Amino acid sequence: MISMPLGRLSERRADVQEEAERPLAFPRTPLRFVGHYLWKRKVEFGLLFLIVIGATACAVGVQYAMKLLVDGLAAGGGSSSLVWWSLVMFMSLIAVENVLWRSSGWVGSRAVVRTGVAMRLDLLQHLTGHTMRFFSEHLAGSLATRVTNVSNSFYSLMTTFVWNVIPPLTDFLGAFIIFATIDYRMALALLLFYVMVAVGLAFISIRGQPLHRAYADRAGAVGGEVVDVVSNIWSIKAFAASRRELSRLSTRLDDEATSQRRSWLFLEKTRIVHDLALWFAAGAMLIWVIVLWSAGSVTPGDVVVVSALTFRILHGSRDLAFSLINQTKDLGVIGEALRTISKDHEVVDSPDAKDVVAERGSLEFKDVTFVHSGGFSVFDKLNLRIEPGEKVGIVGPSGAGKSTLLGLIQRLYDPQSGEIRIDGHVSTELTQDALRSSISVVPQDISLFHRSLRENIRFGRPDATDAEVEAAARAAQCEDFIHALEHGYDTVVGERGAKLSGGQRQRIGIARALLKNAPILVLDEATSALDTESERAIQKALVEAGKGRTVMAVAHRLSTLTSFDRIIVIVNGEIVEEGPPTELMRAGGMFETLWSLQAEALETAGSGSADGVDDEAPADEPNRLTHAAG
Fold it and tell me: φ and ψ at 369, to 5 degrees?
């Protein structure tokens, strides 16, 4: 039997980072979102921008040094000192430029990569704060893809901005200054050209945003569907649905390809317009400077520097145009992800929420009303009290509200009105982490991490020793099959525990709950995937684990509830019967009806087992039920 002082539950909270305890707040729009993270690392990004500006300025300075060198050579031997000083300047600027570019790569790798990690962590923190309803409405693969896409798009956005946007702009500024020293009219013409291109590109980019956004939306949806297909590969094989699913995905991929093609072709049209504009502008500038040289107004060095900078700006502005459009696409991807992930949480901690972990385990529903988002009413002024240490079973037909009741206890969603109290504290006045630290849950569908068995069992209590983990496994009847595995407790179970059978996964889930050792134990069909023999053994472990703790259990197998203190029968969100199981079995109500129907079904299964109808239901099961009822 696993034991741990309940006071240690509060100590366990100290391991949670402060970041996880505060509600996450980050901007919801792409530009403000990016700016938020740039500001958090303003020193690193500021240094990165300055280094790149300096490196580009050196490159422009190299062109000016070449002008001086050409003018010195053209002047003849009397200007030998100018020639040598120009050469020294030329070589020095090249050396400094190379050092700065390499430094920009080092600083950029630290700043951009670290920021991408911070973004993903913050988005995942916000994502985990959504209710289970949110996750039921979105594919898990699609959500994961969006988180990754934000980081990748930020990387693309920053590398493009730093190495494809800042250099052309710096080139332009440097060229403007140099052109002004040659002929101020050329400088003004260059300025006019850049303004016209910038305005034209901005207008074109705005028109292309819907196309880029449509492509991002469809790409995200297709990514989620591919993950959905892979994660349901068993169903695809079992129902021979490979061709059907490939055909279905083919349609989705065709839609995505159409969106991608439209986005791509829009970029190509933009490139054509931009190339024509630059061809005209570059040709005009070269003709102009040659005419001035012919008139003796400029030196040969001036012709060289105007020619070199014109072509540099030509290629730089083309890179600038493509980069600005690509950045629009990256911002579109980030915006699409934020629209989905950054929605406000339905369940939030109040600013003055208490970080109090329950120790006694009393539960009380006071006039609780709950309506699902679709307008379906589940509970209307439900009242229920469960004393500390009481064992309560919850039964009723499907859709009666049993699982919703357990979800409200865990605060997976909040009621529209009324209160749920735990140890006298209103659940909404406690932090969600503190509330859930008070509860151990064994759900019907056990989800395991792609980690070792030891890590999965220890998940609810990370500070547990190996001895305590193994004791929990023994109590949950896991030890025999764990030792039969090649690597024992170090066996990695596969995605969602795919390497284990349903019954084995359920036993690991029970071991995990036993190890957590919270004052409230919630069982939602906790033994549904077990054969009868294993169920009997685990029932003993659960009875032992429930000593001194409050237990709430939903079960379709009514025999699992015969040792409970009280049974609650729920129909259409209302408690129609409650009392000890022995009394309800004689009361002639809903519980007795359900008991009789289940006993008849088990008798039929038992008599048919000899014919291979049900090898897991022993023939003496009805007699055991009757004996329990008596």
Answer: -120, 130
Q: Where are the beta strands (DSSP E) in 252-405?
A: 363-371, 377-386, 391-395
For every residue of 190-256, DSSP letters joined together read: HHHHHHHHHHHHHHHHHHHHHHHHHHHHHHHHHHHHHHHHHHTHHHHHHTT-HHHHHHHHHHHHHHH
Determine contact, residues 24/122, Cβ cutoff 8 Å.
yes
Using left for φ > 0, alpha for ψ between -120 and 50, and beta otherwise, residue 269 falls in alpha
Annotate 479-507 with DSSP letters as a single string: HHHHHHSTTGGG-B--GGGTTS-HHHHHH
CA-CA distance, 176 to 307, in Å (whole number)? 13
Going by their DSSP bridges, the two strands 417-422 and 363-371 should be labelled as antiparallel
With CA atoms as reference, report the closest residue to 409 among 528, 521, 549.
Answer: 521
Helices then strands (H, E): number in the chain?
A: 22, 10
Q: Which residues pair with 442 in a beta bridge?
A: 523
Amino acid identity of residue 607, one-letter, is S
Residues whose CB is less than 8 angstroms from the CB of residue 287 and which lie 6 or more positions away in sequence, other chains included: none
**Measured distance CA(409)–CA(419) in Å, rounded:** 11
Tokens (6 digits) for 19:
């970041």
Q: What are phi and psi of 193, to 5 degrees?
A: -60, -45
Q: Say if residue 75's pLDDT is above 90.
A: no
**CA gap 489, 468 in Å, rounded:** 13
The C-alpha atoms of residue 271 and residue 269 are separated, in whole angstroms, by 5
pLDDT on residue 611: 41
Q: pLDDT value at position 55?
A: 92
Cβ(424)–Cβ(386) under 8 Å?
Answer: no
Cα separations in angstroms, 374 against 156, 288, 371 = 40, 71, 8
Task: Determine the 3-state secondary structure of 380 from DSSP.
Answer: strand
- pLDDT digits 0-9 by tens, 221-256: 787 778 778 777 767 877 777 888 888 888 888 888
- Which residues 6+ apart lie within 8 Å of 123 measured at CB? 147, 150, 337, 341, 342
What pLDDT score does 538 carry? 66
Which H or E run contains 577? strand 574-579
Per the CB < 8 A criterion, the answer to whether 549 and 521 are in contact is yes
CB of 197 within 8 A of CB of 172?
no
Burial 560-584 (b: 16+ CB within 10 A, else e): bbbebebbbbbeebebebbbebeeb
The token duo for 202 is 């901005």
> Going by DSSP bridges, is the β-strand pair 520-524/550-554 parallel, antiparallel, or unpaired?
parallel
Cβ-based neighbour number of residue 629 at 10 Å = 18
Which neighbouring-strand residues pair with 422? 363, 425
Instruction: For residue 122, give both structure tokens.
Output: 């913050």
What is the token pair recorded at 93? Answer: 């600027």
Quote the pTM value.
Answer: 0.64
Q: Tell me, what DSSP letter sits at residue 165?
A: I
Residue by residue, DSSP assigns 434-492 as HHHHTEEEE-SS----SSBHHHHHGGG-TT--HHHHHHHHHHTT-HHHHHHSTTGGG-B
With a CB cutoff of 8 Å and minimum separation 6, the contacts of 78 are none
Q: How far apart are CA 178 and CA 64, in angstroms?
A: 8
User: Are the C-beta atoms of 297 and 183 separated by less than 8 Å?
Assistant: yes
State how far the alpha carbon of 400 is from the alpha carbons of 365, 377, 385, 404, in Å.
17, 11, 19, 9
Most confident of 131-135, 210-214, 512-516: 512-516
CB 578 within 8 Å of CB 568:
yes
